[in-house]
Design brief:
The structure holds two protein chains of two kinds.
Chain A: H1 17-41, H2 65-72, H3 74-93, H4 95-107, H5 111-122, H6 129-140, H7 145-152, H8 168-193, H9 197-205, H10 210-235, H11 242-247, H12 254-257, H13 260-270, H14 274-303
Chain B: H1 7-39, H2 42-46, H3 59-66, H4 69-100, H5 107-115, H6 124-133, H7 141-144, H8 151-162, H9 166-174, H10 179-190, H11 192-208, H12 211-216, H13 225-234, H14 236-249, H15 258-293
Helix pairs in contact in B: 1-15, 4-8, 4-11, 11-15, 13-15
The chains are: A mainly alpha, B mainly alpha.
């Protein structure tokens, strides 16, 4: 940082430290502005009759007509929202699994074995959905491993899991659970480690057995963490994630797994209707932020602590 | 002193061990399957393999190394992981250091300005248009610049740096050390544990990232490994015609099948993660806990 001439003449005065630090942060603020705030300006296109390649100045201002257009297609919108909410609902419903898994891990006395279980079950979290898709394909496609087992034991019925419309939600949920279970459990494992060990000792002295200890000490110790995770999941319910539903998308299951994130892509990139896609994305972000703040308020009221 | 276990507790232990073992198998087996498939004789593997590879045969690996898109994509993925992570670590940690200084002007505003970006997402099309506007289409910089200052990492780093003893910084200041010296000589080296966590998160993120590639990079020379895998998965026919030339030309046995190629690429994509992941796991855990404190 260059020294600027001091305010008081004569003695060369150093720039105040606070100013120096602020000036040094400006390049980073510009970076953040350029990549996180500038795209927000794109929201303006939602209010114009814009087509890719045009200049915004040549487009007619249409106000809220874009939103009316989305509404005009409400059958599709409802289907997408049904899928989005259903898949989020299932994933919220499955959240206790991570708690159960964490409690179970905690009961393993051999620390080596516990580490091993934890390491192997967390691995799927670190691969991309593209790789998950390859693995799922290798396992569940019509000439995959499972079909091979069926053939080997003489069952002729070949189930095509990837194209099974009826159980599409269940299948997608299972994949997501497979990928995330070990990872989601980490936070509970750490919370359990933080529970006062005197509580356990006291329980032992009182002759509590394992189930009683779990029910009266471990589980209550996890309430607060679970509550926060749940609130975060609820405020995140419009974002199922784009990657999973993009890679697993196929015509057979499309009407079951087309979620909002995918719909934004479909309208924007495949049908090339920028304003509509932007309007959808905008609505999604605004609603998500409102949900998050409501969840935060709720948390403040119930726990006296904010979550964001 | 050992407390004797009751019968019920021993039964409980057995149940726990069985469930754990099953979970481990479910998590590991798909990877194992892909690996044994990739090293089996492709024709034999197509008939069905379950536990052991059949007729060891590495010709598919030899074949795909000769395909011109795979080694290049590997290099692009390595480069983006290396430079992307490096830039993210430097920028995010220096920024975090700046906002830990209580005297900083507009400190709260500066910090919030960055943290809010975790919650506002402009959406796919606005992001796409912006990147195009910056000239990041078919540009390697797309992979490394946008993530330079990441809000989540800033939270982790700032939380950690605030826990460092202030005395070291103070005494360095008295000795006449400036902002950059204090950061480079004291704060950065002392933050190694959390830098490792952030570095690992960022590396995995970079390695697995493909959407930027999918939407904005069409240049064959800039394709990442994930994208190449995706293309192979989706365009079995295209790749068959494309790769069979290369493979025939290389005079490798023509027994290579589309599935065996997919399996091999999957192994190549997952391999680096599988190698480093067990050693880095403890850093992940630290990160998730610190993030939970104020995430």
């Amino acid at each position: 940082m260059r020294k600027t001439p001091g305010v008081s003449g004569g003695v060369r005065k150093k720039m105040p430290e606070g100013k120096k630090f602020f000036l040094a942060s400006i390049p980073f603020l510009i970076l953040v502005f350029a990549f996180a705030y500038v795209p927000l300006m794109g929201w303006a296109y939602a209010f114009f009759d814009y087509h890719p390649g045009m200049s915004l100045f040549d487009c007619d201002f249409v106000g809220l007509k874009t939103f009316a257009k989305i509404w005009a297609n409400k059958e599709e919108l409802f289907r997408v929202m049904r899928n989005t909410l259903a898949l989020s609902f299932f994933s919220i419903l499955g959240m206790p699994l991570a708690v159960i898994f964490a409690v179970m891990l905690n009961e393993i006395k051999s620390s080596k074995f516990r580490k091993l279980v934890q390491t192997t079950t967390t691995l799927p979290n670190f691969i991309s959905w593209i790789v998950v898709f390859t693995l799922a394909f290798a396992m569940f496609s019509t000439d995959g491993m499972v079909a091979g087992v069926f053939r080997a034991i003489g069952v002729d019925k070949v189930v095509n899991f990837l194209g099974d419309n009826k159980h599409a939600w269940l299948f997608q949920w299972s994949l997501a659970t497979w990928k995330c279970l070990g990872w989601s459990a980490i936070i509970y494992i750490a919370t359990i480690a933080g529970i006062d060990s005197e509580l356990y000792d006291a329980a032992h002295v009182d002759g509590a057995n394992r189930m009683q200890t779990i029910r009266h000490i471990t589980i209550p110790g996890l309430y607060s963490t679970f509550f926060v995770q749940m609130l975060l999941a609820i405020s995140n319910m419009l974002s199922n994630g784009f990657e999973q539903y993009f890679v697993f998308y196929n015509p057979l299951t499309a009407d079951k797994i087309e979620v909002l994130d995918y719909y934004v892509y479909k309208i924007g990139v495949l049908t090339n209707d920028y304003p509509q896609s932007i309007a959808l994305g905008m609505a999604k972000t605004v609603i998500s932020v409102i949900l998050l703040f409501s969840a935060n308020q709720l948390s403040k009221r119930v726990r006296g602590e904010s979550i964001v | 002193m050992k407390i004797k276990k009751t019968k019920a507790e021993r039964a409980g232990d057995i149940v726990i061990y069985i469930i754990s073992a099953l979970l481990m198998i479910v998590c590991i087996y798909p990877f194992y399957y892909v690996i044994i498939y990739s090293i089996s004789d492709p024709a034999e593997a197509a008939k069905g393999i379950f536990l052991l590879p059949r007729g060891l045969d590495l010709s598919t690996y030899q074949g795909i190394i000769k395909l011109n898109d795979i080694p290049g994509a590997y290099l692009v993925s390595i480069l983006r992981t290396f430079f992307g992570t490096g830039l993210t670590i430097i920028c995010s940690s220096f920024f975090a250091y700046l906002v830990t200084n209580q005297k900083m002007y507009f400190r709260k505003f500066v910090y919030r300005f960055v943290i809010i970006t975790m919650y506002i997402n402009a959406g796919l099309i606005p992001w796409y248009m912006t990147m195009k506007f910056y000239g990041f289409q078919n540009n390697f910089l797309l992979y490394i610049i946008p993530g330079a200052v990441c809000a989540y990492y800033v939270i982790l780093l700032k939380t950690y740096m605030e826990s460092l003893p202030k005395e070291l910084e103070e005494s360095a200041k008295i000795d006449g050390a400036g902002m950059f010296t204090i950061f480079g000589r004291i704060v950065f080296p002392l933050s190694k544990p959390i830098l490792a966590t952030v570095g690992v998160f960022s590396m995995v993120g970079q390695w697995n990232q493909w959407q930027d590639n999918y939407f904005l990079v069409t240049d064959a020379k800039l394709q990442t490994l994930q994208m190449v895998l995706y293309n192979y998965l989706n365009q079995a026919n295209r790749f068959q015609s494309m790769s069979s030339n290369a493979i025939d030309a290389s005079a490798v046995t023509s027994s290579i099948t589309p599935s065996s190629i997919k399996m091999c690429i999957t192994v190549l994509v997952v391999f680096p993660i599988m190698c480093v992941y067990p050693f880095l796991q403890r850093y992940f855990e630290k990160g998730i806990m610190m993030g939970a404190v104020k995430g």
